[in-house]
């Protein structure tokens, strides 16, 4: 079920700090043939929801099978030349979850900067800076907490990432397409 390409992707990502794993490979087929294969699978099966928008294909689980950390696979299929295409893949959480996490990260960064300025101002004025310094350090703890929550979510969604990748490969192989 798992292939060497996926293992190479996972191994290359194991030593990096990556919340949204990416991959890229070339295939010997036109991007129109690839996109048509995904369009065909959209109606032939019900295990995954396949959505296409121009050269972008989104593969996700049906609503009833999704959990909070369910990933989705975003593919961008670009024409390389007349007979080859490049597939760019990005595993990520539901865009709503990703947006919420980014908002929280920016909020924490803003509070970190604001409390740091407050602490510096109080320190230069000779006033007590214990509370703003505590808030500054607390924002660092909150940021690490958010980061590790994201890593735990990614770990919980990893089996689903394998399923999405296997489904993508299955579609490519059914069209007689193999990576170069």
UniProtKB/TrEMBL annotation:
Entry's transmembrane regions: 97-118, 130-149
Claim: Transmembrane helix is one of the keywords in the record: yes
Keyword annotations of the record: Membrane, Transmembrane, Transmembrane helix
Domain of life where this protein originates: Bacteria
Species, as recorded: Winogradskyella haliclonae
Name this polypeptide is given: GTP-binding protein
Keyword Transmembrane part of the UniProt annotation: yes
């Amino acid at each position: 079920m798992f292939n060497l390409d996926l293992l190479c992707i996972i191994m290359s990502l194991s030593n990096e700090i990556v919340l949204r794993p990416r991959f890229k490979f070339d295939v010997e087929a036109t991007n129109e043939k690839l996109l048509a294969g995904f369009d065909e699978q959209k109606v032939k099966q019900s295990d995954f929801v396949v959505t296409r928008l121009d050269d972008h294909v989104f593969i996700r689980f049906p609503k009833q099978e999704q959990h909070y950390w369910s990933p989705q696979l975003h593919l961008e299929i670009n024409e390389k030349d007349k007979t080859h295409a490049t597939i760019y893949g990005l595993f990520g959480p539901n865009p709503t979850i990703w947006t919420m996490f980014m908002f929280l990260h920016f909020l924490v960064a803003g509070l970190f900067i604001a409390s740091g300025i407050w602490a510096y101002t109080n320190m230069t004025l000779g006033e007590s800076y214990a509370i703003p310094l505590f808030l500054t350090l607390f924002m660092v703890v909150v940021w690490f907490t958010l980061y590790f929550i994201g890593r735990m979510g990614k770990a919980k969604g990893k089996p689903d990432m394998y399923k999405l990748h296997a489904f993508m490969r299955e579609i490519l192989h059914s069209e007689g397409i193999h990576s170069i």
